[in-house]
Amino acid sequence: MSSKYRLENSLIYIEGTDVPHNKLGIINSDELHELERELIEEAYQVFYSELDEATVFDEAYFKSLHRRIFESLYEWAGAYRHYKLNERAARGLTAISLQLINRPLIFWFAHFLP
User: Is the entire prediction scored with pTM above 0.70?
Assistant: First the structure.
């Protein structure tokens, strides 16, 4: 499997690979993707059990989810990136545009989920 990450002129990658720097020093894309999948599956069970009527689906909540899922793997977990990293997204999508795109999604979660 090739990396889902694409980035031009950045130090995010481990030199000579298409794998982002990570706390575990993993340099194999397939191994990294499998670990990410496992972390997400484990986190889903925890996050689902924590949901209640008081849960607020706002930007802080989603950033917190990302941090909690990936903090053991990435230094930047839960933070907006300040460089152009596209994960199968439109070329040139940046952190600031992600914030703008997320606003309607966050509003929808906050107001329309049962």
Answer: no
Question: 113 falls in which pLDDT band (50, 70, 90)?
Answer: low
Instruction: Please give, one letter per residue, the 3-state secondary structure of the chain.
Output: CCCCCECCCCCCECCCCCCECCCCCCCCHHHHHHHHHHHHHHHHHHHHHHCCCCCCCCHHHHHHHHHHHHCCCCCCCCCCCCCCCECCCCCCCCHHHHHHHHHHHHHHHHHHCC
Percent of the chain predicted with pLDDT > 90: 32
Nearby residues of 92 by Cβ (< 8 Å), 6 or more positions away = 84, 86
- Give the other-Cβ count within 10 Å of 97's Cβ: 12
- Tens-place pLDDT, residues 68-78: 999 999 998 99
